[in-house]
Write a structure and sequence with these properties.
Layout (H helix, E strand, L loop, with lengths): L29 H5 L15 E7 L5 E7 L1 H5 L3 E5 L10 E2 L6 E2 L5 E2 L5 E7 L2 H9 L2 E6 L6 H5 L23 E9 L2 H7 L2 E9 L11 E6 L5 E5 L4 H12 L6 E5 L15 H11 L3 E4 L2 H7 L6 E9 L5 E11 L7 H10 L9 E9 L14 H19 L3 H7 L20 H10 L32 E14 L8 E11 L2 E7 L9 H13 L3 E4 L17 H28 L5 H4 L2 E4 L2 E4 L4 E4 H5 L4 E8 L18 E14 L4 E12 L6 H20 L33 E4 L16 H18 L10 H5 L7
Helix pairs in contact: 6-7, 9-10, 10-18, 11-12, 13-14, 17-18
Length: about 800
Amino acid sequence: MASPSGTPTKITQGSQTKGGIGESTLRPDGTLKVTGEFAYSSDMWHEDMLWGQILRSTVAHAEIVSIDTGEALAMPGVYAVLTYDDLPTDVKNYGLEIQDTPVLAHGKVRHHGEPVALVAADHPETARRAAAKIKVDYRELPVVTDEASATAPDAILIHENRDDHHAGHVPHPNIVHRQPIVRGDVAAARERADVIVTGEYTFGMQDQAFLGPESGLAVPEEDGGVHLYIATQWLHSDLRQIAPVLGLPEDKVRMTLSGVGGAFGGREDLSMQIHACLLALRTGKPVKIVYNRFESFFGHVHRHPAKLHYEHGATKDGKLTHLKCRIVLDGGAYASASPAVVGNASSLSVGPYVVEDVDIEAIALYTNNPPCGAMRGFGAVQACFAYEAQMDKLAAKLGMDPVEFRRLNAMEQGTLLPTGQPVDSPAPVAELLRRVKAMPMPPERQWESSEGADVRQLPGGLSNTTHGEGVVRGVGYAVGIKNVGFSEGFDDYSTAKVRMEVVAGEPVATVHTAMAEVGQGGVTVHAQIARTELGVTQVTIHPADTQVGSAGSTSASRQTYVTGGAVKNSCELVREKVLEIGRRKFGSYHPAWATAELLLEGGKVVTDGGEVLSDLADVLEGETVEVEAEWRHRPTEPFDLRTGQGNGHVQYSFAAHRAVVEVDTELGLVKVIELACAQDVGKALNPLSVLGQIQGGTTQGLGVAVMEEIVVDPKTAKVRNPSFTDYLIPTILDTPTIPVDVLELADEHAPYGLRGIGEAPTLSSTPAVLAAIRDATGLELNRTPVRPEHLTGTQLSEG
């Protein structure tokens, strides 16, 4: 393996080969997906395969008195029934950072829907009926559902014997992680403030709502190992957690990425991976597990709901003096990514503003609510909702324009974050706000026409509840900051294997990584990088699997940066080897081979002056060049556990939104007319994909603003709406016009100057919509999502 490259990558124009970076190349899987021909993991099939089914707890917190599997085992067509006692090794827990999640419940269950038993049968309906015949006797326990019940002196402990590395610095065992950030003197700064505003904010639990429910196929192999075909975000992380539970070395657990129907963080944790492998190894047959939508709501983590208390001060001329805030995230029954989410929420809680004096605390709780972990925006979303509401409150109290107030306090390159880390790349916060405000406004009263009202343009839409009576327009603005890549000292790297050879007389490059393509378009970008760096037209993307080094997770907006960097690095090493072959073969015939800057372009070797020296096919004839190399960005460090100081992040992305809404103030209905966005992307490697990412993230933020929330009964901790009938997500009729203004201010530390883009628009779209609704109604609206009863004052029945 080639040596890792840890130095900053020079920003280069690269080759002019068609389909390279900067072009809107089409996705190779695009046509298959829109025509319904793409093979997702749920479409996999194997001869003689069995179907797996998981029995889940019907209560949120209870002792397991007994489990009777007799009736299920006696059913014709049932091959296996497994409980905790059937697990093959002493390793019976797993987890991303803290191994606190049991493969199957033992002793007690800690949340509604926790896996208790597994069934394998020859038909999916047989497996479901058999699982229903398993008798579990529960003795229910009191539930812990909020901070008061979690941290009371006599609180029931969710995990009685914690021994993880966070346990020593938290004030209560039901707190997963705590991160304070203290800088300056808040008390003194408070004295200088001419105005002070406070706010209590509530952020609801959001589901990733991806297209394809969890699914996979485990196939036992002759050497005693297993091959898992799986839809995931991180193959090597799954492997690290799966192999010890199975009692197998990692090289006997082969993993291949199958078609992924979206992720948004919900596939970072394991779901059915271990269960399918256990059943396959027990029965000696391939086992397929496919969740239905109801089960999917219990089978993956969600976005942390949050309570946020904020205090800001400002001088009469509009300069921020201080921030004091406390963020409480509900992590649910197991840790998942909660520690990292706490780090993000705290370190980004100030937003993209200059504030010298801060006192910040963020914690995540263990409760009996559904487990929460990674979701697009990762802690920064909840904070942005609160600090942007505070910015509007301050602007109103000072009598200032909300955009100009934000611009006055906007950070820029060189600004020190509350953690003491300088922002060392462009931070065009003020410019993004200026641009988004300058965009043309949508026409007023679009529903009116000569033929009458177009109800599709009105609040309530096709329900035909209003024809414009009582409809008021509102406009709101917001801007956010999101980190890119893993933080706090995590060894964040990626690996790429690149091969060049001649196939049918033409030079062909093959790119092999373990990157999970979850819809973000990485497979397109990798081909573009190879064409740019190697000057070839034909690029093959090898299926992602664990036969190549780790690519890390498809999350944190990191893949184009880190795995793109690995592909670029490997391509550069391949290019040097190809040129060395050419120098050996042809250097004596043409002095330019040895003296000129040589490029690979359009299947040819050319000098920097454009003189063609050779066809690449001639150079590579009889040769195969292959390099597998890692790439690392600059290192980070953990935040100090007392002060929160430290260079914890790699890169930052910024987006600003302007929301235009129309609200029926009598019925409490909202129609988002437009969500204009301005975002700096550093370098748009594929402009069409960039646009799609920004519009998709914007729509996800819209969902949590006015629709999306997993409702958990506060008395029983049971999920009340685990279906798309009751958990609402935006449809095309709810999605507004989303004009986008893209800036390209290169980050000199990143490959091609690019900046991760997928998460930033999810931050600022939510508070922009809330700001617009406040503008239309005059209401404070300190929670998401906004429901009709919040706008009309009508309290709906809990029944």
